[in-house]
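quick one before i forget lol
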Amino acid sequence: MSAGEQLGAGKVIEDEAVRGGLVEQHHVAIIPESERHGRPRDQFTLWFAANANVVNFTLGVLAIEFGLNLFWALIAIVVGNVLGMLLTALHAFQGPRLGVPQMIQSRGQFGFYGASFILIVSIVLDIGYLAASQVLQGDSLHLLASGLSVQVWIIIVTIPALALAIYGYKWIHQAQKVMTGIFAVVIVVALIQTAAYGHGVLKADRGFHLSSGPILIATIGLFFMNMLSWAIYVSDYSRYLPVNVSFRKTFWSIFLGNVISTTLFAGLGAWIASLVPSTTANPLGALATVSGLWIMFFMGISQIPGDTLNAYTGMLAFASLGTNSKKFMAAQNRQTVRLTGIVAIFVIGTILACLSSAHFYSSFENFIGVLLFFFVPWSAINLVDYYLVRRGRYDVASFFTPDGIYGGFQWWACLCYVITLAVQVPFLDQLFYVGPLVSKLGGADISWIVGFGVASLLYLAGAKRFVGAQPGLAAATPVVS
């Protein structure tokens, strides 16, 4: 048996008592078909709970802070969410078909070592989102109970998320079902309270006038990237589904779970910001003014599902970097690898959150903008390769060794990625850099639009010549069913 088959095929014999334990035993190895379980509708509750949170509420406030009125803010929220999730839900179907985490699958396009860069960037994303979430959680609970500092509250809310991440896939799904029920009630009550509050105050501009096209594009881009940020690990939570699971049911469960909850919570933020003049300076205070302090408790715990996903998937990215080591992949060492990765992600994120709680919020929007730059070209290449070039045909064992058919580097994908990054630069509008073409476009940052188009077309144009056939692969499982 080759090294790739040993490491990647997921056929390591495990003790039955261990396999039946409460704590998940796998990290990045292929999930055997005998251990596949779950239904597409389980994906709905997972993602609804992951997005019913204080972060999305805050992003909704930003839509008004940028200068849009409520009507156009809601348009931007919906359009950005829909566009971003159309792509992300397509990524998600790679999970059940291939049975491996999302970033491992990227080696089919970029090669074993070529995918390492995006793996490392994904870990930065996980830690950044975790830290930002913890800051907002700490602020919420400090507003409710100021006897404890924000930093102490950050540590307190980290404990249940840490436990869930350690227990793993099954328990994450179960917890999200409970959180979906809780936060479905919370958002309905909050929206009713906001509607009642709106009748007694001087309403902000509720017209249909668009203040600025570039601002609209920037806001759509903000929500597009917020949704697309899930793409780098969406398959991590679908990889246990049966290999023949329905494409349609899986796609729509993930799409609707994400879009509905994100739109509701971001829409609540935009609505409150249009009613309470102080919202942009103190979003959580404005929410408490409208709904009461009770909601701060739920805002404080709302990001526990998101914290869990960030740490869990950060662990998978961490483990992916060591897949060329037999010792790293051995069954008896998996729990050590899992625990080390999860704890490391939480420790780094929590330290950053505690140190930057006073100013991290102000830089969060810029952080998301930087993510657009790095992840849009990756998403385009990954999707084009999976759906149009290889049509789901991959030698999954080769994902786990540089000696497989994808080698250390797939130079065409790497070249397309680098070229696309360069093409995006003139269109960037960030705090630290404004591209030369931004002013000619009225201040609009369209780098994410340019990036996706260029990466898709460029990779597809050279795919037949430079990607080529892969001998020895079995007939592909249908990409869509």
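fyi The CA atoms of residues 178 and 252 lie 21 Å apart.
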